[in-house]
Structure formats: C-alpha cells, structure tokens
Amino acid sequence: xxLAGLPKVQRRVSLGFRRLEELxxxxxxxxxxxxxAWWTGGRAPVGAAREWRDQVQEQAWRAAGWAVDEVDLGLKxxxxxxxxxx
Length: 86
What we know:
Layout: E1 12-16, H1 17-24, H2 30-34, H3 36-40, H4 56-63, E2 66-72, E3 77-82
Antiparallel strand pairs: 1-3, 2-3
C-alpha cells in the first residue's frame, strides 16, 4: 500500500528495513537480512529449499508497480524503482 500510494512522479524510494517493518506491522523474516536473493529473486543460496523468484513479497511490490533496484544488507536498506509505465 505504501509503494502504491507514492506520487506517480516518484521514480525511486529507499527504505530501511526497520521502516519497512513499521509499515508492515511485523518483522521481516531472517532471510531478508541474510540473502540478497530474498529481495531480488534468483537462485536461493546453497542449502535453501527452493528458489525465491516469484515469492509473495516480490509479487506484492510488482503488483504495486515497483521492483527492487538495490539492496544493502550491511546497511539494512532497500531501494525500489518504479516499473516503466506504472
């Protein structure tokens, strides 16, 4: 809802993991702090049960018209970019 509600002229937004948790009203899963693939999709790390591509979190921000542009696990920050035509 937060991403969908941003002004159409806004092309990027950076959020700290804590701010995301505030917006969600719950904690991010431990995987979000450990694996860039949780945010960006792609193959899961060795030993993980399955791929993270098309996970519910990715579906949610794509449905709102956004994609992850950058993620910094050290700083616990993610930058989203608005999808073209959205």
